[in-house]
Amino acid sequence: MIRIGTSERNGTFYTQGRALKAVLERRPALGAIEVLESRAASMENANRLHASDIEFGFMASNWIGRAKNGEAPFQRSIDLAMAAPMNAGPLFFIVRADSPIWSFSDLRGRRVAIGPRTSGMVQHAHGLFAALGMSFSDFFPVYLDFAAGAEALLAGDIDAQFQCPIPNAVMTELAQRLALRVLPYQRGELEAVMKAVPYYRRTVMRAGAMRGLEAEVAQIAVLNVLVTHERVAETIVHEAVKAIATSCGELGRLNPLFAGMEELFEPLRSQGQAALEFGGVPLHPGALRAYREVGLLT
């Protein structure tokens, strides 16, 4: 049994995990594949790996170094090992189309859904607002998951919601039920966030990517990855990573969050294994062997 830790059922990691299961379960050497939900996503998956409760877990790359070093909110150092990149998608705030909120400063005094209290989304929100000279005391944080937050925005119980990435089922459905806007960065704000938080990258939400998005909007993105533990057998990690690296197109067809996945592996060719060793966490020996066999590493 290969167990994969993801996110809450309506979260993007969970839907990606279901697509990944479809690819991995065709590898007899891996046996049965089980996709597990997680209320705290990255943090919970790291702790599950430490406890040997799962073999793989989805994490946002910004959590990797914290887990390795035992930094808060982790209570111990966790011997993670990198497996494969999964996707890089935008983190963004949505408001109702008729909302008077047009900038981050307009969120002062407003009710903003930022994810479950122990989630990675809350950590992203802390870093993002700090970079913009704001804190959680400037607005009213509401700790709801994606689905509950969408319903609250629809009902008018909150003024904005922190979302990631698109396409995702919750966002697509909400945009069909409610006219929305994506909150843009003002001059210099995006650069300030990227300077303060080095693991972010610039991305563009394309016009038409969801109903109501009529023009390109520059946002931040974080690379999400699949991690494992150094105790997981090399043969298992090798088989799984080789399946992923050779099935990018199929994964993209199964779940559009994987679209363009091939590009995430390309830095291996020019930068070597360090390209995927976030926070100083090494690639698992099984992953290294897989990447050499498929020609991504020499």
Detailed description of the structure:
It contains 12 helices and 10 strands. The mean pLDDT is 94. It has 2 domains: 158 residues, D-Maltodextrin-Binding Protein, domain 2 (3-Layer(aba) Sandwich); 134 residues, D-Maltodextrin-Binding Protein, domain 2 (3-Layer(aba) Sandwich). It is α/β, with parallel strands linked by helices and 298 residues long.
- Quickly count the helices: 12
Query: Total domains, how many?
Result: 2
Mean pLDDT: 94
Please give the alpha-carbon distance between the first and last residues. Answer: 31 Å
- Look at the structure and give the CATH class of the largest domain: Alpha Beta
Structural class: alpha/beta
The tally of strands reads 10
Helical fraction equals: 25-40%
Tell me the radius of gyration. Answer: 19 Å
The profile of the biggest β sheet is: 10 strands, mixed
> How is the quaternary structure best described?
single chain
In CATH, the homologous superfamily of the largest domain goes by the name: Periplasmic binding protein-like II
- Tell me the β content: 15-25%
The sequence of SSEs as H and E is EHEHEHEEHEHEHEHEEHHHHH
